[in-house]
Automatic annotation (TrEMBL):
Catalytic activity: DNA(n) + a 2'-deoxyribonucleoside 5'-triphosphate = DNA(n+1) + diphosphate
Gene responsible for this protein: polA
Region Disordered, annotated ranges: 297-325
DNA-directed DNA polymerase family A palm domain sequence ranges: 692-895
Originating species: Salipiger mucosus DSM 16094
PROSITE patterns: DNA_POLYMERASE_A
The protein, known as: DNA polymerase I
Domain 5'-3' exonuclease, residue spans: 5-268
Record-linked InterPro entries: 3'-5'_exonuclease_dom, 5-3_exonucl_a-hlix_arch_N, 5-3_exonuclease, 5-3_exonuclease_C_sf, DNA-dir_DNA_pol_A_CS, DNA-dir_DNA_pol_A_palm_dom, DNA/RNA_pol_sf, DNA_polI_H3TH
Subunit structure: Single-chain monomer with multiple functions.
Amino acid sequence: MTQFGKGCHLHLIDGSAFIFRAFHALPPLTRKSDGMPVGAVQGFCDMLRRYLDHDHGNDAPTHIAVIFDKGSHTFRNDLYDQYKANREEMPEDLRPQIPLTRRATEAFNIACKEIEGFEADDIIATLSCQAREAGGRVTIVSSDKDLMQLVGDGVEMFDAMKNRRIDREGVEEKFGVSPDKVVDVQALAGDSVDNVPGAPGIGIKTAALLINEWGSLEELLENAEQIKQPKRRQTLIEKREQIELSKRLVQLDCETPLEFTLDDLEVRDPDPETLLGFLSEMEFRSLSKRVAETLGREAPVIPDTTPEGANPPEDDAPDAPPIDPEAYEQVSDMAALERWIEKARDRGWVAVDTETTGLNEMACGLVGISLCIEAGEACYIPLAHRAAATDDLFGSDDLAEGQIDMDKALEALKPLFEDPAVMKIGQNMKYDAKIFARYGIEIAPIDDTMLMSYAMNAGLHGHGMDTLSERYLSHTPIPIKSLLGSGKSQITFDRVPVADAVKYAAEDADITLRLWQLFKPQLHRAHVTRVYEGLERPLVPVLAQMEMAGIKVDRDVLSRMSGAFNQKMAQLEEEIHELAGESFNVGSPKQLGEILFDKMGLEGGKKGKTGAYATGADVLEDLATEHDLPARVLDWRQISKLKSTYTDALQEHINKETGRVHTSYLIAGANTGRLASTDPNLQNIPVRSEEGRRIREAFVAPEGKTLVSLDYSQIELRILAHMAEIDALKQAFRDGQDIHAMTASEMFNVPMDEMTPEVRRQAKAINFGVIYGISGFGLARNLRIPRSEAQGFIDRYFERFPGIKAYMDETTAFAKEHKRVETLFGRVIHTPEIAAKGPRAGFAKRAAINAPIQGTAADIIRRAMIRMPEAIESLPATMLLQVHDELLFEVEAGAEDSLIDAARKVMEAAAEPVVKLDVPLVVDAGQGANWAAAH
DNA sequence: GCTATCACG
DNA sequence: GACGTACGTGATAGCC
């Protein structure tokens, strides 16, 4: 044992910097056997190995340690609550890897040090000071400029990336002052990364100039009055306090209380068994081979070897026992629950599923929770099952035996569900997250097998658990109907006998875990990791919040409208019956068809495949020019629709407790990446007709608040202009021109100032037609013109904008070759039907043309929504609804303009930085007491 | 449970 | 030469 002193050389590795560099520099990697993300761990180990093997010459370490941060709150947060406040959240795939890097360090037999509530930098500073005082030398392995103040008197830094030592000269090069003056410069210049304010308008260059002129920050501030430049003088005088605070923030603490000494850090050889054991547990094949070579050992055999670089097999299913519902455990006491929680913590992940009394997360009760950690080993924790009925039909209100008290169970589970180091895996996690939120648990981090499937398989099949289980695990889960029954005699889950519930519920968690282990490594290979992690998963908490917020709906407004509609319908019905000469059900297309075409003998009756006459709006509109009856039916239908679907149904959806309507968004509902809204659908509230639009008056802001709506202007056409690279369109958007008028002008050679509304209308129809995969027939029907004329328009359009034709051809060719198309953000939409013959081919082709455009627009608003909570954090505003290209907010009166500024900024910049669009994104805003006024 | 119809982007 | 079409959704009513 060597006493640390002269001749000793301490190397201090900045562990966090190593991890982040490893995480960001390397592609995501998951452990093959179970899907655990381990890319950063591998990178970390490799960097450690390379550092130890590196020939350090005269600078070889006699003592070494890896220093980590611990805890997010330090004394600097007490000095300044905004310190490091702009730090991005740690990526969710990185969190579970942090404890593994600690284990890796220990496996290399290197001292691994951290102290709760202290930054690694302060520990490094303290150790450096101690080592220097003892007469030894120090190498700090980091390129972090915050550590540069420590350089000098035997302390140097080493940039492992550039393989370069940083000494006094290196620091002076960077800061323009000697190391002991670095904090003074930093105090003035501030640091945007750590959110240190500094002096506004003064950067490193100016700061160095000032410090060198006055000798120190204190001298400078004392003599600030004498500064010649007025702006600079004013800043230094006015911001003095802020500058002094900044100095305290950047000054490292050499007095950190340590529970170890320098002697504890002496270099030790690794124990080959431990190190190789760890590496093979992580399944790092090439790394363990390399390390084994250095150690002169046999490389450990890692089962299920896939040669690196070779194509992995199609089937990734880890060897797992068959699914056996009899094998699941019922958790009936706290001791058993604690065991499961402990196991989940050890493992770093757990599949979770909740059972409830209904499907409405806002109004149902929690009945039980199932967990699964290893395939085949799952449990169910019954919490609110009712005791079996003894005599009556309605069952008992008493709780069944053998259940843990719900509050106690949730109290025990909360730390696990909120533990950043434990991944919570679910199928449709938004549902479970909303349930837990009602019980005060913010579940995170999460993975969602439904969303993984959606990212990889959109267009191929659905993403419900039953579909996925049958498709990927060849297993049909126990149908919920077998427990609940169906129809009138259907019971709620709390009435299901606990023993049956265990099998069903635990099986769901088991299946979810197995799907996760299968999907996780596939994401990267399918090149959709970024889509999943950036566009699907982060939307879960955002949508959960929006759905829970709901929107206030005025029942009286709806009720009055329903009454008025009722009267109007009765009146129309009477007129229709009179015109028909008999009484019939106006709402029955079959009966209506017979009246119109058989009894009245009108022309143009066409029977569809079911043998019934078509009576759609387009048919009736044609007939309406000659007869009153079809015109009245059209009126009747419009009102009937508004009443049944909106003014009546919406009232049923007003939540008793909140007085608001809470929709539910399907993240994986639409193939293109769009959301879908259900129960109720708030994405199709009428707006186009005057009468329909009045329904929006029932969507209101509460007293003292305002509804604010922001919507993207022409987003799909802008995306088309960018993707198809149409210069004329791009320029028109940049110039803020009327795009439909401009199209008309180009096509029909009409000068812009002579444009008629009719010509513009036709050009608009063509522009939209292009987005949908235009056809002569479709355009003809839409514009009600002969097909030949429509085809003429299209021909002229393609002649004028050959790029559009080229884009459409290229997209179809791509789809044919790859059986998929992609958005600008890498979202994949599969198009298996593209190879079909017959009419289906036409459908598939148009869908393939539309999907990248619609999907890119969907990606953009998703990005905006994901960034929105942080952007409006400081405002008294809530995001309530999304309607494809519109976001609706509720905001306290007075803050409307601040909200519009903040939200517009996020929306207009939502494509960046991944995609730089050639056209600007423009967002229009409106506000008012109700949705009609805000739109 | 399927089909027709119609509300939205 | 015929096929039969605008893209993406969800809710409701009628009907079998």
